[in-house]
Amino acid sequence: MDLFSFSECANQTHSLRALFELLVGCATKEGFSEVAYGALNFVEPLRLAEYPPPTVAVKWPPDWCDRYFKRKYHTIDPVVRRTPMHSRPFLWDQLADHYQLQPDERRVLEEAREAGLKHGMSVPLFGPLGRISVVSFASAFDDADPQNRIGHLNALACLFHTAYSEIARPCNDSSCERKVALSKREISCMRWVAEGKSSWEIGKILEISENTVNFHVKNAMRKLGATSRIQAVAIAIRLNVL
């Protein structure tokens, strides 16, 4: 399922469980069937009741799920601890290369791998008032390569997070519906951003300078209230701007 199809299905979804199952289904097709969504520094107004905070929704092997929550591994999980330090998606396999992990942190990663969560990656998601959430993906296969799927999984996580926010905070007042007007050039640039093109590549395609591309993309991000390009794409798709 491409990003536009995912967004279209998410638009028709009005429950967290159905939305999360949609995300899991798409991630599974990418080879990453183990998925978790959590809120790291605040309490989400909507969560699946069977999972205690900070997890909002999770699809993990049952034995690992039980062990993780009973032993309160979220307090020592390096993914939970390190997510606020990242502005972009990161691979679990590289955490030890960038940080001096404590023995208990290494133990959580090793036990997760033994339980079937292999070659994981996490997507930090930043909201208003300093809120931080995270979507994590892992594979059950030894030969999975998250680096090759990181762009698509990142986009899926952002689309999911945006859709979840609307379900969790419904507003019946029509004045609450966001109206965002992008220029034709901003839309053109953002469509190519959605295809994974760099500013240099977009400049060549549209026959404009790289600086001009960056100018239009930054304007689009500002109008959409996004802090990253991929978040801007996710919001634009959700609002039917693209």
From TrEMBL:
Going by the UniProt record, its keywords in alphabetical order are:
DNA-binding, Transcription, Transcription regulation
Say if the entry is tagged with keyword Metal-binding.
no
Q: Which residues form the HTH luxR-type domain?
A: 175-240
Known CDD domains for this protein?
LuxR_C_like
State whether keyword Lipid biosynthesis applies. no
Q: Which SUPFAM superfamilies match?
A: C-terminal effector domain of the bipartite response regulators, Pheromone-binding domain of LuxR-like quorum-sensing transcription factors
User: What domain of life does the native source organism fall in?
Assistant: Bacteria
Question: Pfam families, from UniProt?
Answer: Autoind_bind, GerE
| InterPro entries referenced in this protein's UniProt entry, alphabetically | Sig_transdc_resp-reg_C-effctor, TF_LuxR_autoind-bd_dom, TF_LuxR_autoind-bd_dom_sf, Tscrpt_reg_LuxR_C, WH-like_DNA-bd_sf
Q: Which PANTHER family match?
A: DNA-BINDING TRANSCRIPTIONAL ACTIVATOR DEVR_DOSR
Name by which UniProt lists this protein: LuxR family transcriptional regulator
Q: Which organism is it from?
A: Bradyrhizobium vignae
